[in-house]
What does this fold into?
Amino acid sequence: MMTTKQKILIIDDNAEVRLSARFFLSNYGFEIIEADSPVTGLVLLETETVNLVLLDMNFSLDTTSGEEGLYCLRKIMALNEYLPVVAITAWSSVDLVVKALKVGAQDFIEKPWDNQRLLQVIKQCLKVEELQKQNKKLQQTNQTDIEQQLTFVAHSPAMKTLLAQLDEVAQTKATILLTGENGTGKSTLVHYIHHKYNQQLQNNQLNNSALVSVNMGAIPGDLFESEMFGHTKGAFTGAHQTRIGRFELAESGTLFLDEVANIPLAAQGKLLRVLESGEYEPVGSSITQKANVRLISATNADFKDLFKQGLFRQDLYFRLNTIELTMPALRERVEDIPELAEIMLTKLCLQYDKSLMNLLPCAIKRLSCYDFPGNLRELSHILERVVLMHKEAAIKAENLMLNDNYQQADMNKESTTAESLNKELSMPLMTIEAAERLLIDQALNQCYGQTHEAAVLLGLSKSAIYRRLEKYKISAKDYLKVVS
It folds into this structure.
């Protein structure tokens, strides 16, 4: 198997220091990339696969306190908490070293460094990083099955609302109709509801109940009764033995009717009778049996259209939707996408016996801006394609191979952000210089002192915003967000 060079990012505003590190570390097989400022380094981390960062703690804007370096370190930890960072300082400052280690640096070295000490620290940090990765993979491998873990990703308001509704009804026997677009994960809700109901049965010292699923669209009309209610031996040609129906299999448990809108019209009356009376007879039998199931149905169909076309009975619909819950589309739960993607990616890496892969921030941003007409199913297919085709551990935005929906969505988001900012900036008449000073002040405040982000927000280049910071004697460090 071909091995790739480990990549080290050096963030230091001294070109001679960067050159010295490059010459020395290149001799030991490391690939070196350079950044002359925290802003440049953070931009590189958005798109580059980096194994370790050498971070100078003091820069030209702030040569002694180390605040610029600490701020950059916090941002690196926010991007990837597992990325090893070695802090570099030219001063023997115990205070600064302690602060850097608390924020997340793995180790530190002092300028001028001893080359062998530098090499030893880097190798040790990379070894710790590899052990952490292996430990993470082992923990994830020991999980029984990610799909069977009934913990929902619910950071979005839409999912939080749905979960609150689920918890209200899950422990009852109420008939539930789940609606929502294809691929949104309605079947996962069924497992969650059944699990909650099963917990209640266990608390009452009853046996575990079964969850029986049936795709209604896959059952031919002439076999509906046999599949759902069962049949006796010899009931019809080909009935060589007695068959137990789905209602009996789900006795005291949950019967899940997926794609319920696809039930043939002729069979709908037979299902309605069971829901109204709780009784049915297996085909070929005159013995009436009692149905004792908790019924859950799911569909992506529009029932109003089906009613108009005469394809679905309204009385059956009203029996099915005692409680109706709608699974939100993935585009309505953008806040959940990063964690959902990471869970799916881990599952796929394990499934195909691949090394663990990770999504770079630019890839997560692209996924968060994508429309996902195929919802969770499409997200899974996108990541599966990447796992099978991509060779590197880190996944960039372009590796996802999404279409132009992303660009349009991204433009819409940026437009919304600009409009929101414009509403906040309601200024009285003033001189152009005063207005410019105020705009820079508000942009830095909103971006917590990150000049690159403030420049993007104001439509300025990096050099242009630094000229204005010098002109108005503004220090970016005064806007740094304090991270506890």
